[in-house]
Amino acid sequence: MAAKSDGAGAAAAVRMEPGAEGGGGGSLAGGAGRGGAGPGPAAPPAPRAYSLLDCCWVLGALLVFFSDGASDLWLAADYYLRRQRWWFGLTLLFALLPSLVVQLLSFRWFVYDHTAPRAPGAAPAAAPPAPAASTKDSGGPKDGGRPGSARLSPAPAPAPGAPRTRGCCRLCIWILQSLIHLLQLGQVWRYLRTLYLGLQSRWQSEHRQRHFYWRMMFESADISMLRLLETFLKSAPQLVLQLSIMVQQNNIEPLQGLSASASLVSLAWMIASYQKVLRDSREDKMPMSYKGAVVQILWHLFTIAARAIAFALFASVFQLYFGIFIVTHWCIMTFWIIQGETDFCMSKWEEIIYNMVVGIIYIFCWFNVKEGRSRCRMAIYYTITLAENAALTGLWYMYYDRQATADFDALIIVCVVSSSFALGIFFMFIYYCLLHPNGPVFGPQTSGCIFKKAPAACVGPPEDVITSPPRSLPRTTGGEREGVPGDRDSCVPVFQVRPSVPPTPVARAPRTEGPVIRIDLPRKKYPAWDAHFIDRRLRKTILALEYSSPATPRLQYRSMGASQEVLEYETTV
Asked: How many CB atoms lie within 10 A of CB 405?
């Protein structure tokens, strides 16, 4: 997925403006404030530990990546040596062009992540280091005893040779990253970095463990989006191309079979991996087990295989009509997705581009993009897919070349298409009936949230009270994206310090565990990524605050369900 890379909402510099006592909270551009008065902060829940299975999953993803790319290049070289220049050109085109697009996107993210923001109006000359933001405990003499106060402590002066050393290190990093992306190995670097950060989250101290774990989660989100985009721009057309060549030649070369198999496994693996990382990244959702991920791989493996074989059979006889069919199907699916009003990106035009990319995915397989029960939408999609597969395969069976293919072989191919689709649907039922994180589809289900009980209803709590998270939040509307306060283009700051003291006592005691990062944006609904995963400025600010804070901050998103912030989301970063 082409995620938002420039961000929408975090300021370029850290700025602290403590609010007045008892009044509204001040603004903190990329900062954190302490909650109201009360007992000492309790330790926030620890993140999920990085396990050996997580490490093996990353190594398996690397194996899938190398097998897919290497088999395509090997097959292209074989076509060239056999002077089949047309097949050589198409195979090489589908192997290199998507890789170049993904490398450019990956390098753009790297440039943004490693470019130090400059304050507006700052001189180009080197400026002294900015003060580091830190949150302090309330009630002490240093902060005047005001809960919610935070101060800026000056950073220590750098050593005389430190700027030159840092400059040399940054230059080496830029040269290394440029070389890695030129060699089309940006995904490999991100996989290895994910592995390193995950292992560091096991070996470091408790606070550093949380920091490395969430850096690993951010990196996993990046590589999942990049690889999903690459597989459907590269592996999907490559699979259909090689199957069409096999059908036309009425022969299966070993390299062709290897390339097609690697492309098929890559597609199925990345869909399951993307869904797993997305669920793991959201604290309001139950994580997907590796058993469920493996069954999801089998589900998509067989359904995509049936779909690709049906495409290849039809394209071997009706090349022109196949192109018309693909474009028509993509337009219908894209319109269906847009009509569902997805909420993935931070702007309207990015959302349209995202819907167009998901339309490409819908050519081959099901991909959930909307919150709520998806049974009806999934049933409609697979009914359409079954009808299309039957029509494409039936038309090929009526008009295929009888001299090149025997009737018995043609019948076997038709049975392979139907049985493969049936197997895929069977594994889909296995996943939803036995291994879905929310529980069996025909049994008692959980809410899908890690919190077992819904928050008790309370009328009119003050704004500084952080209640338990709701089971669902309203989606971001177009008006909220393009003009209301809290939008990225408005003048209202995204981060705000919570009010110091509640104006009136309430029956429900506010939770005051540790610092809170308050984001003046409505939280996106699953299956969208949270804003701090797709907005890189938010991500950089949160990581900096999490690293410098003695306690892990909690994220608090704005709720659009009421005039006051009654139900606000909070999670451990």
From this structure: 15
One-letter amino acid at 450 equals I
Torsional sign, CA 514, 518, 524, 530: negative
Q: What are phi and psi of 344, to 5 degrees?
A: -100, -50
What contacts 12, CB < 8 A, 6 or more positions away?
117, 118, 119, 120, 537
CB 510 within 8 A of CB 148: no
Single pTM value for the model: 0.74
Cα distances (angstroms) measured from residue 95 to each of 83, 103, 215, 363: 19, 13, 30, 19
pLDDT tens digits, one per residue of 93-151: 999 999 999 999 999 999 988 886 554 444 443 333 333 333 333 333 334 433 333 33
Q: Is 113 helix (H, G, I), strand (E, B) or coil?
A: helix
Distance, in Å, from the CA atom of 5 to the CA atom of 347, rounded to the nearest integer, reads 12
Nearest Cα residue to 184 out of 276, 305, 103, 80: 103
- Give the 3-state secondary structure of residue 16: strand
Q: Which two tokens stand for residue 96?
A: 């290199």
Rounded Cα gap, residues 497 and 133, in angstroms: 13
Tell me how crowded residue 162 is: count the other CB atoms within 10 A of its CB. Answer: 11
